[in-house]
Amino acid sequence: MKSIDLSEVSALASYVQGADPEPLFLTQNGRTVAAVVPTDDENAESLLISVDPQFQAILERSQHRLEREGPISSAEVRKRLGI
User: Which helix or strand (DSSP H or E) is residue 33 part of?
Assistant: First the structure.
């Protein structure tokens, strides 16, 4: 994860410190190249996971398996985990 102190990008400060909790899209030559998304320490990890390609691949595999095999009961989960 990369981070930069807000004081180093003062042009963005007024946008991200405002009361409007919307993403801010950065453009170059009319094309979107990045987004600044409001978050806090509690939600930063969830945000990072949501854009992680490996995590997305796990979710996709899980969804395909669910569609193929159907769900399993909580009793089956406990049995497989030995609890």
Answer: strand 31-36
Residue 39: name the closest of 47, 30, 31 by CA. Answer: 47
Each residue of 38-77: pLDDT tens digit? 888 888 889 889 889 999 999 999 999 999 999 999 999 9
Query: Are residue 1 and residue 31 in the same domain, yes or no?
Result: yes
Could you tell me the pTM of the whole model? Answer: 0.54
Q: Which domain holds residue 66?
A: 52-83
Residues 81 and 58 in one domain: yes
Under a CB-based contact definition with an 8 Å cutoff, are residues 42 and 34 in contact? no
- Determine the distance from the C-alpha atom of residue 10 to the mean position of all C-alpha atoms in its chain, rounded to a whole number: 25
Q: 8 in a domain, yes or no?
A: yes
